[in-house]
Amino acid sequence: MVRKEALVTPETRPLLRRAHQIVNSGDGEYAFTDLRRTTLGGVQTRQFRLFTPVSRRRMRLPTSLPEFTELRHVANLSDSPVTVAAQLGGQWSDHNLAAITHVAACNFRCSYCYVDYAHLAGADHFVASADAVVAEFVALRVALRRTGRRLSLLRVSGGEPLLAPSLVLEIYQALAVRGLLDSVVLKVESNLSTLTYAWRRSGGHPGAGDSAAMRGIKLHTTLHHPPDSREWPAIRDGLALALEIGFDVFPAIGANDWTTTQFESLYSELVRISPGLPLRLAVRPFHLDYPALADRRRLPQPTPGEAPSVRWEGILRRRADVGYLAEPRHLIPLT
Ligand code: SF4
Question: How far apart are CA 273 and CA 329, in angstroms?
Answer without folding.
Answer: 17
